[in-house]
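Protein of interest.
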Amino acid sequence: MNGTELTIILGMTLVTFGIRGLVLLFSGRIEISGAWERALVFVPPAVLSAIIAPSVLMPRGSLELSFGNFYLISGCAALMAGIIFRRYALWAAIVTGLAVFGLYRFFLL
């Protein structure tokens, strides 16, 4: 690793932790209105959906809506498990998604 790479890594570290530190520093002093608070509840699911949807719907770079797309099949199974088992939605979705993915990919194809 040369000096330029080290400088870039240190700069990125400073920016990342600087932003987080400022947010934590001012988090108790800034009041957020009720409308903003209600809206911010939807940010994590929206970001997660934006990350997952392309890899599930387009695993090879183009839209693939078929039974050959095991990412889509396991994603649908995980979604259904999360809806059915609301109390344990996260664990149900993870376990079901991984189980269906493994079974479908390694035993059915």
Q: What stands out?
A: Residues 3-26 form the longest helix (24 residues). The two ends are 44 Å apart (CA to CA). Residues 58 and 64 are 6 Å apart (CA to CA). The chain has five helices and no strands.
